[in-house]
Amino acid sequence: MIYEKEKRYIIPFDDVPSDRAEMPEITVDERRRNFVEVETGFPEEVAVAEAKRCLSCRRCLGCALCWAECKPEAINFDIPDEELDLDFAEIVLTKGQDNSFHPFNSELGYGSYADVITDLQFERMLSPTGPTDGLVVSPLDGEIATRIAIVQGNTDEDETHLLSSLVLGVNESILALDKTEDLEVVLVSPVCQAFKEKFLSDSEKIGGLKIVDGVPESVEKGQKEEPLKVTFSEDGQSKKENFDLVVVLTKPKVSPEIASLSKKLKQEIM
Q1: What is residue 258's DSSP assignment?
Q2: Domain 106-249 indexed as CATH 3.50.50.60
Q3: What is the per-residue pLDDT for 207?
Q4: Largest CA distance in the chain
Q5: Rounded CA gap, 33 and 165, in Å?
Q6: Phi then psi for 170, rounded to 5 degrees?
Q7: Rounded Cα–Cα distance for residues 162 and 6 (Å)
Q8: Nearest-10 crossing angle of helices 159-179, 119-126
Q9: Is residue 120 over pLDDT 80?
Q10: What DSSP letter does each residue of 72-106 carry, written as one string?
Q11: Integer distance in angstroms from the first to the last C-alpha of the chain?
């Protein structure tokens, strides 16, 4: 078959040295009720072999096969090279989208129990296009949650982090409460002074949400069908309550590349 596009003819080759490698994926059963990545990635030897493959001509001969096959019209051979010198009044640096976060208390059960998830995973769950179509359910059994604990993973003295983390926890609570009838959400975290002054009074008016000024200590679970048992301190006393789902508020970690750029530009990361 010959492809034709704007008077260019591309003849397909039949001597491609090897077939394209197929991306390995976990099974359908393994994908249920969790946030595990479906595509597991190539092993090193497969990735190297795949990188050595070519469209067919072994080097670019200007055949435009890639251009003919690019349905989004992303390839344009007529664009001349140019350097742009742009002036900006302000540069905003963000943490990026690598979704990495600082380590937190391993006793909170993340990685040990399927129904303990991070704030980012919870945000995906709340999305209508997320893995549960926006339903607030336990990744363990798919049951709709009736009681959720949102707990602070990093309880250090970083006021900036605590403020933004608490605001995120409240916002996610509002979305969850709006999507699920008869849901109860308990937010356990040290409450910084800035949050008390700006947001606490309004947050306490949200029906179904309880804010506990305390420190989460551990998450335990007995048999598979039993609820999660969250231990936390409040007013110097240790308490333990049952929940269907635990969401850990994380502290985003800036990648070395962004940190280096921030230093080079002398610009604070937002």
Answers
A1: H
A2: yes
A3: 94
A4: 79
A5: 26
A6: -65, -45
A7: 58
A8: 30
A9: yes
A10: T----TTPPP-------S---B---S---B----G
A11: 53
1-10, 83-92, 229-238: least confident range? 1-10
Which amino acid type is present at position 144? I
Report whether pLDDT(204) > 60: yes
DSSP string of 94-155?
---S---B----GGG-BTTBTTEEEHHHHHHHHSTTSTTTT--B-TTT-PBPSEEEEEES--
Show me where the domains of the chain are located: 106-249
pLDDT per position as a tens digit, 55-110: 444 456 567 777 777 887 888 777 788 888 888 888 877 766 666 788 898 999 99
Q: What is the pLDDT of residue 143?
A: 87
pLDDT cut 70: percent of the chain above it? 87
Q: What angle do CA 35, 40, 41 make, to 5 degrees?
A: 140
What is the chain's mean pLDDT, rounded?
83
Q: What is the pLDDT of residue 29?
A: 87
Ramachandran angles phi, psi of 247, nearest 5°: -115, 125
Comparing CA positions, the residue from 127, 119, 131 lying closest to residue 247 is 119
Contact criterion met (CB below 8 Å) for 50 and 21: yes
State the CB neighbour count (10 A cutoff) for residue 151: 28
Tracing tokens 């009720």 back to the chain, one arrives at 33
And the tokens for 220? 């335990």
**Side chain identity at residue 131, one-letter code:** P
